[in-house]
Every structure is written in C-alpha cells, then in structure tokens.
Amino acid sequence: MKPLLIGGEWVDTPQAVSNINPSDVSDIVDRYAQAGISETQSAVDAAAHAFPQWSRTTPQARHDILKATGDEILARKEEIGTLLSREEGKILREGIAETARAAHIFLFFAGEALRVTGDSLASVRPGIGVEVTREPVGVVSIITPWNFPIAIPAWKIAPALCFGNTVVFKPAELVPGCSWIIADILKRNGLPAGVLNLVMGRGSVVGQAMLDDERVDAVTFTGSIETGNRVAEACVRHMRKVQLEMGGKNPLVVLDDADLDVAVECAVDGSFYSTGQRCTASSRLIVTEGIHNRFIEALAERMRGLVVDHALKTETEIGPVVDAAQLEQDRNYIDGARNDGGNIRCGGGVLTRQTDGFFLEPTLITETHPHMRINREEVFGPVASVIRVRGYDEALAVANDTPFGLSAGICTTSLKHASHFKQNAEAGLVMVNLPTAGVDYHVPMGGRKRSSFGPREQGSYAREFFTEVKTAYTRP
Fold first, then answer.
1. Does 272 lie in the same domain as 226?
2. Which residue among 34, 141, 180, 414 is buried most deeply as judged by most CB within 10 Å?
3. Is residue 349 in a domain?
C-alpha cells in the first residue's frame, strides 16, 4: 500500500483503495492510503509550519530541487508513462508524452525560480523611492482531475513551489499513482518536510476539509463546474485566492475552403485522441454546407480505421474511458442525442476486447442543432456532434453560442477568416488549422465564461496566482 505524505513522513491509514486499470479491470495497479479529516488537517498544519522557512529559501535552492525533479521524471518517462497509461487509460505514447511534458514543466519553473523580478521606481513625491516586489501567497491547496494524472499536478505544484508556497495536494481518486511518484521524487530530491503534503482520498472528505481550513491561503482546482462552484463559494467565505479550470464545449469550425485532410486530422485528434477525455476536446464540429458531406464521409472513413484496445498495446490508437461511470455517462449522451433526432453516423457502441475494460467506439453524431443537449453539455468522451451551417458568419455565431469558453478552432485557408476568428472567438485558446486540444507548457492556459475563473495557469503568467504583489515606499 502506498502511504500519504504529511510533514515529510510517509503515513499509513486503515483505509485504502485499489487503483484499477481501465483497460483490464483485473489489473490492480496498487493500493493507496486514504486520508480523512484528521490527516488532512495535519497536512495543512505541516504546510503552515513549513511556510515561513520555505518562503525565505534562496531562488537557487528552489531551482535545484525543481530541476532535479524534472530531470528524474524525464529520465523515467517510459516507466512513469506506463504507469499513467495503466491507471488512466491513455495509450502508451500519450502517457509517455504527458510524462515528458510534466518533466519540462518542472524544468521551466526551475528557471522561473531564478527569474522572479520586481520594480524600483521614483515616487511622484520628491525624495521617496518605490519598490514593487512579489511574495508567496502561503499555504496552497491543489485539487487535480483524473484526465491528466501527471501534467496537471505538475503545472500546479511546480509554480507553487517555485514562488515559495507550501502545498497540500489532493489528486483525483481514480489516478493516485502518478501523483504519489511526484511526491516521492520531490521528497528524495531534498524538498523540506511539510513543503508538499500528499493527501489522497474522497473529495467530499479531503477536499472539503481543505476548503474548511482557515489556514489555507489559496486553492487551485481543475475539475467539473459543479465542484468548481462549491470551491469558489468556500473560498469567497474565507476571502482566499481561488483559481478554477473547468469544462469546455469546444467548437472546431470547418469552412468550405479548408484543406480536407487537415480538417479531418484536426477533428480526429481533437475529438477522439486521449479517448476524448480532455477539457479542450473538439466536441462540436461546425461545418459549412459546401464541404459538409465530403468532410463527414472522410471523417467517418478515418474513424472506422481507428484501433480501440488496451492502452499498452503498440497498435492501439484509442484506449478505454476511465471507468464504468464515465462509460455510462457517455452512452447516456449518445442515446440522448439519438432520441433528440441526431444520426449516429459512426460508432456509438461498447466494444469487447481480449481484456475486460471500458471500451467505447469513437462516435460521430450528425444532423444536430445548436440547442440539443449534446451540443450544450460536456460529454467528456470520444463523442463529437456535427452542426451544419450556411457560412462563416453563422459558424462563428454557433461557435460562440455556449456557456463555455475554453478552446476554439478553425480550419480554413482564408487569412481573412482566420484573422477574424482569432479576434472574435469567445475562448481563451484559439487554434487555426490545429486541433483544439494540445497546448504548450510555457504559455498561459485558461478560458473564459464558465470554463475558467481567476488568473491563467502555466508559463510566466502562473506568477499572478502564486504570488502577492507588495508595494513599499521608502524615505532615506
């Protein structure tokens, strides 16, 4: 059984849960200790006690720990990537790629630790100097989802530590393995006791205990809108900083002048890779009349050739959905779309493979309209719906007709339409002739509307959440 990490010590608990491989439910990855309210409070206490000393460590000390962590993750990317694919269901090359991305995030923030800047200005009043500096926020609660088991923890933990904060970290219940490895690597590479505390367990217990604790100074959360709303409400009550990354209902617009092959590959990648379990997935394909039929035919043909199987098989292109509950949710949305008048053009069925897993055919639903439930709510599976439109203006209007605003894409060879779309798409991320999913680690990540709240994540913009600005005036 893998224990919790509290105050620099590995802590066992009477309760543990099995980490099950969604490609093969007979494969138990490991068992992981479960925290309760008392363990969570102890973790917050450890973080609070570690903060004064850690916040005053040198940039070099923080750099060295983060760099050593990034180097080790990169050196072990095949091992950790295999674990990731076993516990989450991503195919192996995606698991390894995500692990490498996590390593590069730690290496990026190792550099950022040496680049924390401030400003020295003259006051508008004679003889007075002004200094603007950044200081760590304090104890940061980190709550992460199951769909990116190592990348999302990395892009929250690394900047938190980089800027001198201490952390209480709760990973998703379905994927504790990669998070445990991050904690272990940081501990072995010299992170002082209490600076990072790992508390695995149920969100209703561990997450709520963190939200209720007045010693928590900031919360960064990625997950559902419903939970995000509860996190925000709790943070407002305590007047603490909060950063939310939530859902998406991301459009991919395909115009008549698009390169058909490019458009098909963008749709396949954005809609179905990583089993569609990405907040940036292309769940709405908005296609103009002139290319509609050719695009649907080419996309359906490409989908029929996709290999769905065990995530660790080399030929697999799409793995299982993460668990039985997610599979049932995906099926309910597919059935609902059919009942609302949508046409299941391709896929839609549960698949039987050599191992007992949660395998779903990539599904394409045509003849839908913007107000159908399938086009309003996030499915979070390998399911894409198609909306036919007359031209660019209607396509843009439909793309923006959503309560979400995370990512939006367009496939076109028109510079005019590409430029207009970049300026007018109501999303935090805009892609031109690229899948809506897939972002770099050194630039800001985040959305608009109900998709995000608070400062952006990743890149140098991460400092806006993980630091506080102080302005100091001095008369010599």
1. no
2. 141
3. yes
Average pLDDT over every residue of 140-151: 98
Q: What 3-state DSSP class applies to 325?
A: helix
User: For residue 288, what is the enclosing H or E element?
Assistant: strand 282-288
End-to-end CA distance of the chain: 60
Quick one: 427 and 468 in the same domain? no
Question: What pLDDT digit, counting tens, does each position of 368-410 carry?
Answer: 999 999 999 999 999 999 999 999 999 999 999 999 999 999 9
Active site residue 279: yes
Residues 411, 291: contact at Cβ < 8 Å? no
For residue 29, how many other CB atoms are within 10 A of its CB?
A: 17
* The dihedral sign for the CA sequence 88, 91, 96, 100: negative
pLDDT of residue 399: 98
Q: How many domains is the chain partitioned into structurally?
A: 2
Q: Rounded to whole angstroms, how far apart are CA atoms 364 and 450?
A: 25
Could you say which DSSP state residue 203 is in? I
**CA 333, 334, 335 angle in degrees (round to 5)?**
90
Instruction: Supply the range of the domain harboring residue 32.
Output: 4-246+451-474
**Catalytic site residue from 245, 361, 378, 457:** 245
Q: Which long-range contacts (CB under 8 A, 24 or more apart) does 221-225 make?
A: 221/143, 221/245, 222/143, 222/144, 222/145, 222/152, 222/156, 222/246, 222/279, 223/143, 223/144, 223/145, 223/172, 225/450
Residues 129 and 102 in one domain: yes
Number of CB atoms found within 10 A of residue 14's CB: 7
Q: Catalytic: which of 279, 346, 378, 411? A: 279
Q: What is the pLDDT of residue 235?
A: 98
Q: Read off the pTM.
A: 0.97
161, 42: one domain: yes
Which pLDDT tens digit goes with each residue over 189-203? 999 999 999 999 999
